[in-house]
Amino acid sequence: MILPNQRRKVLATLASPSIVATLTNLKVPPSVAAEEPSEEQVGKPKEFVNVGTQAPTPNDETSPFITLENGVKIKDFRVGVDESIVNKGSRVDIQCSGRLLNLNGVVFYNTKNNNPDGFGAIPLVIEIGKGQAVPGLEAGLVGMKKGGIRRIIVPQDLAYNKFPGLEPKPMTANDQRALDSVVKNSRRDGAILFDVQLERVK
Questions:
Q1: pLDDT tens readout for residues 119-148
Q2: Of 61, 65, 150, 197, which residue is least crowded by CB atoms under 10 Å?
Q3: For the chain, where are the alpha helices, taking DSSP H only?
Q4: What is the 3-state secondary structure (H, E, C) of 5-43?
Q5: For residue range 57-88, what is the model confidence (pLDDT) as tens digits?
Q6: How many angstroms separate the CA atoms of 53 and 57, rounded?
Q7: What are phi and psi of 108, to 5 degrees?
């Protein structure tokens, strides 16, 4: 039990200039501070606002996102140099990762995991316009050149919500469950982010 004279000593200590200065300089931890969009997120597509660190947002402002007529957003990080350009009917080999924007950017697909013999990741091979891949990804690939790297944001109506059986397909049961937790939940936006590197086009 604290006696009255002891209480006065404690209060006097807390009110000392050194203690006040210490308390004034305390910083609120990020987990306690109110979450606000960072400067990097300002001006970015709305799909990135709630994406965590697992899905880094683009920082190259020299080449902003381009929105296609169907709502797909594309951004080139490296433009290929080959003369061949992806068009309808092209057969393409791509290295690709897919992230769930509404699930903190969790990766549900990555060709780097498709390396059964240990000699390198096997690319995803699709023919544009044949209905092999989700329409939004196909639309985002059009115009790419060999060696190009592009980020593609696909709205849910052009992704797995309406085309659940198309490529790129999750390679593990856990990845499939992650995808299902978004596309089978009507309260979640099924927008997908793909990062693509074009290895070959025929």
A1: 889 999 999 999 999 999 999 999 999 999
A2: 61
A3: 4-14, 17-24, 135-141, 173-183
A4: HHHHHHHHHHCCHHHHHHHHCCCCCCCCCCCCCCCCCCC
A5: 445 555 689 999 999 999 999 999 888 899 99
A6: 8
A7: -115, -5
pTM over 0.90: no
Q: Which residues does residue 66 pair with via DSSP β-bridges, in sequence order?
A: 74
Look at residues 87, 100, 197 and name the one whose alpha carbon lies nearest to residue 151. Answer: 197
Strand, helix or coil at 48?
A: helix
Half-sphere exposure of 172 (CA within 13 A, CB side): 10
Q: Which amino acid is at 193?
A: L
pLDDT at residue 6, as a whole number: 55
Q: How confident is the model at residue 9 (pLDDT cuts 50, 70, 90)?
A: low
User: Which H helix or E strand runs over 154?
Assistant: strand 149-154
> For residue 36, how many C-alpha atoms fall within 13 Å in the half-sphere facing its CB?
3
